[in-house]
Amino acid sequence: MNGYRQISARQWFFLSLFSTICLTPFGFPTTLYHHLGHGAWVPVAAAYLLTLWGTFVAIRLCARFERMNLAEWSKKVLGRFFGGIYALVAIAVIYFWSVGMVYVFTALVTYTQLPNTSRFLILLFIFGPVMYLLRNGLEAWVRFAEFFGVMLICGLVFINVPQLVNAEFGKLLPLHTVFLRPDILVRPEIIAALFVFRGIFAVYFLHPCIKPGRLLGWSLLSVTLAFVEVLTAVVLPIAIFGASFAGTITYPYQESLGTVALPWLPIERITLLTPAIWQLVIYYVLCTSIFSAAIGIKGLLNLQGDKKERRLTVALGLAAFALTMFPLQKELVFRLMVYWSMSGIAVLIVIPTLLWMILGLKERLR
User: Fold this and answer.
1) For residue 354, what pLDDT is reported?
2) Rounded to the nearest 5°, which phi and psi values hold at 265?
3) Spatial distance between the Cα atoms of 326 and 228, rounded to a whole number of angstroms
4) What span, in angstroms and rounded, lies between the C-alpha atoms of 200 and 13?
C-alpha cells in the first residue's frame, strides 16, 4: 500500500472516459466551424494524437514515482521551490477545469432547457450530488462512475447513431482545403482545441490511487473512445446542416440531435434524453477535477490523514460553487478557457515530456 486508497484500472477507465469527453461537444465546435469550415475535424484529430502521446508520457513518468502524485514528485525532480511552483500551477489548471465546465454547463442548461430558472438552483442541482459523493470519499464516487459508466456509453451510442440517417458526409469534402490556410491553424483558439481531451491528465494526481496493471491500455482506450464521441459531435452537424450554417448555431450538436424523431418511443426527440446524459457527465468532471486538486494540495503541503483530505475536498467544492455563482459573459468564459487550455498544454504535456526525456537521458548516461 502507498498511503492512498486504491481503485482498479477498469474503474479509472470509466472516470477518465467521461472526464475526457467532458462538455467538449458544446464548447469549441462553433469556433472550429467559424475558422475552419468543414475542416473543423482537423484540430480534433490533432488533439487526439497529441493526447495519445501525452498519455503515454504521463503513465511512464508517473511509473517512476509510484508512491507519489505530481505535487510530490515534482519537488523531488525540480527542487522544493521550482517543483512547488510547477505543482501549484498544475493544481490550478486541474481545479479551474471544473469551474470552467460549470460555466459551460449552466449556459447550456439555461439556453436549452431552463431559461427562467434561478442560477442558484441549477448550481445546487449540480453541486449537491457532487459534494455528497466527494464527502463520502474516493470509493463512493468511483462506484458511482462504474455503475453509470456502461449506461452512459449506451446512451451516447443511442443519441448518435440515429443521426447518421440525416447525415451527408459529402459535405466534409474536399478534405485538403483546411491545410491551405496554415495561418488559421496557429490561432490561439485552434491551438487551445489541442487540449480538449484534458480529463486523462488527472492521472498525474490519481496515479497513486490506481492499482498497477494495464493502466496504459485502459487509458489509451478511454482517450480513443472519447475521441470518437467528440469527433462525432463535430462532424455530424457539418454532415447534417453544412459547415456554414452549423457555424451560426449556438449549440450545433444539440440542434443536430433535434433532427431525429423517435415515433416508436414515448419521447418525441432525442434532445429530451440528452440533459440526463450530460448531467451525469458533469458529475464525473467535477469529482475528478476537485478530488485531483485536493490530493495535489495534500501532497504539496505534506498533509496526512483521510479526514484532512476530505475536508480539503469539501472546501474546494464549496469554493467552486461560490466562484460559479457569479455569472460571466459567454465570450469572456470562452476567452478564459482558451488561455487556460494553452496553459494546460504547457504544464501537463510539454513540461512532462521534457522531464521524461531528461530523466531517461540521465539514466542512459549513468
Assistant:
1) 96
2) -125, 160
3) 34
4) 9
Bond preceding residue 174 cis, omega within 30 of 0: yes
pLDDT top residue among 3 and 168: 168
Distance of alpha carbon 306 from alpha carbon 53, whole angstroms: 33
C-alpha cell at 265: 418511443
C-beta separation of 187 from 178 below 8 A: no
* pLDDT score recorded for residue 32: 86
pTM: 0.91
Grid cell, residue 278, equals: 450530460
**Phi, psi torsion values for 268, nearest 5 degrees:** -85, -40
Place of cell 502524485: 69
pLDDT tens sequence across 299-311: 999 888 778 888 8
